[in-house]
């Protein structure tokens, strides 16, 4: 088991400074949540060779490991343009994970489309069913890439997503049927996961 720091509250620091602080705080691993200079929310990763090199050097210098990356893209969007962008971003993120020796990707099932668009949608196209279908299309593309690269993806059912409860999330993960895909259990969200967690 790895005890990792999610340095989200320190994202104003540069990546090298974040590595230094992580070690000073007594952690040996980082779970890198979205930040503007690496894996940004919803958009293309802000990553290029020099940034990867300096980040890797800082990790080594401060004897800190990258336990996981936390990409957040709209892979469950029923809107084709948003979904295509999300898949492109996921493919790039998988490349980055390999370059950074990050074995684990942690994400969520997702809320579907962008909130601005889905809130105004009166066509009926933004439903839980449509979001799930988009998610399955994403899995068809991404799971073979994850398996090929030896990466693990752990997905969380999250409050306000199209999938919030743990029991159907586990059913979906089992249906994916890949050693590369797991289900995250997030303790602070237990109240949202179902009425009988022992049974779930």
TrEMBL record:
<protein>
    <submittedName>
        <fullName>Protein iolH</fullName>
    </submittedName>
</protein>
<dbReference type="InterPro" id="IPR013022">
    <property type="entry name" value="Xyl_isomerase-like_TIM-brl"/>
</dbReference>
<dbReference type="InterPro" id="IPR036237">
    <property type="entry name" value="Xyl_isomerase-like_sf"/>
</dbReference>
<dbReference type="InterPro" id="IPR050312">
    <property type="entry name" value="IolE/XylAMocC-like"/>
</dbReference>
<feature type="domain" description="Xylose isomerase-like TIM barrel">
    <location>
        <begin position="20"/>
        <end position="196"/>
    </location>
</feature>
<dbReference type="Pfam" id="PF01261">
    <property type="entry name" value="AP_endonuc_2"/>
</dbReference>
